[in-house]
Amino acid sequence: MAGFDGGRMTSDAGAMLFGATDRAIGLIARFADCFRDHRAAELVEHTVANLVRQRVVGIALGYEDLIDHDQLRHDPVMAVLGDKREAKRSDCAPLAGKSTLNRLELSRAELSRDHKISYDAGLIEAVFVDVFLDAHGAPPAQIILDLEATDDPLHGHQEGRFFQGYYGN
After folding, report:
1. Rounded distance, CA 85 to CA 99, Å?
2. How is residue 35 annotated by DSSP?
3. For each of the chain's 169 residues, which pLDDT tens digit applies?
4. Which letter does DSSP use for residue 108 in this model?
5. 153: left (phi over 0), alpha (psi -120 to 50) or beta
6. C-alpha distances out from residue 121 to 34, 50, 53, 63, 107, Å
7. Residues whose CB falls within 8 Å of the CB of residue 105, separated by 6 or more in sequence, listed in order
8. Residues 12, 61 contacting (CB under 8 angstroms)
9. Residue 117: helix, strand or coil by DSSP?
């Protein structure tokens, strides 16, 4: 008897390079430190750091919708990158599903009855500046931001289209 289901495999093995790069610069861990978890610790299966890592990796791999994570929560590469290969509880997957990730997505700066994960916007802004400065031996004397209006014409009625006034598109 032969099985052709593929077993436990992934189509995103190239993400291992992404994981190695992140381990070198620590961007996701630094970003996760900007969040505070006020959930009951004894009931938490997926830490905020795990949620942030899973969401960032998912977006980097092109999985922008939370619903994708109901399948990705069983993906072996996502488990390796999320540094969580096994769940603590037997009734739970190693990684979070869409409902749990939604708690992170809907986090607010201020806590509420329904929002137990908060973030510090100032820390989030500082993370990106710090990562940039850490990439240089000494802070650069000058930073030039080269912003240009590049024409990217749209054809048809694509979702997310908008009017670009400079080029009339």
Report:
1. 20
2. E
3. 666 666 666 667 778 888 999 999 999 999 999 999 999 989 888 899 999 999 999 999 889 899 999 988 888 888 888 777 777 778 788 899 999 999 999 999 888 888 899 999 999 999 999 998 898 989 899 988 877 666 666 666 767 666 555 555 5
4. B
5. beta
6. 8, 19, 18, 24, 11
7. 55, 66
8. yes
9. strand
Flag whether 123 is in a domain.
Answer: yes
**Longest alpha-carbon distance in the chain:** 68
In a domain, 32, yes or no: yes
Task: State how many domains the chain has.
Answer: 1
CA distance 89 to 31: 27
**Domain coverage including residue 43:** 15-134
Contact of 146 with 130, CB cutoff 8 Å: no
Residue 58: φ, ψ to 5°: -60, -45
Q: Give the pair of three-digit tokens for residue 86.
A: 């096994």
Residues 6+ apart with CB under 8 A from 12: 61, 75, 77, 78
Could you tell me if residue 166 is inside a domain? no
Report d(CA 123, CA 31) in Å as an integer. 8
